[in-house]
Design a protein that fits this description.
6-stranded mixed beta sheet; Nucleotidyltransferase, domain 5; 4 helices
Length: 128
């Protein structure tokens, strides 16, 4: 079974803000493996353009950092699952997702196992 996930990125990391992410990493998964990945620049795009593109590409899940309530509602209304407030390396977040262990508010450390800090959500929310 095929699915597509999107990760707004800033360099190699999950972008701290969905609305200001300069690029979007789109991954096509099949049977729990990444079959294809595409990076597209989206720095000049509005929230609506970002959502439209994800809908057009049939993205089912968005893994992101900080996101405002309005954007999250719009995405959910388009049947896109949102895993918000994730911080750290995009590649590590993707691997954690593939293992079925990615949770909202998770901080992904390089070279470490999964760890979840409760303060992460409060920390990101304050910054938006």
């Amino acid at each position: 079974n095929m699915m597509k996930i999107a990760i707004p990125i800033f360099g190699a990391r999950v972008s701290p803000r969905f609305d200001f992410a300069p690029a979007l990493l789109i991954c096509t998964l099949e049977n729990g493996r990444v079959m294809e990945r595409t990076e597209m620049p989206i720095n000049t795009w509005s929230i609506w353009q970002r959502v439209e593109k994800m809908k057009e590409l049939q993205v089912q899940t968005l893994i992101c950092g900080g996101i405002d309530g309005n954007s999250e509602r719009i995405l959910k209304s388009q049947q896109i699952e949102v895993i918000p407030w994730v911080a750290g390396e995009a590649e590590k977040a993707l691997q954690t997702f593939l293992k079925g262990k990615l949770q909202p508010g998770m901080i992904i450390y390089p070279g470490c196992g999964r760890r979840r800090h409760r303060w992460a959500q409060a920390y990101w929310r304050r910054r938006i």
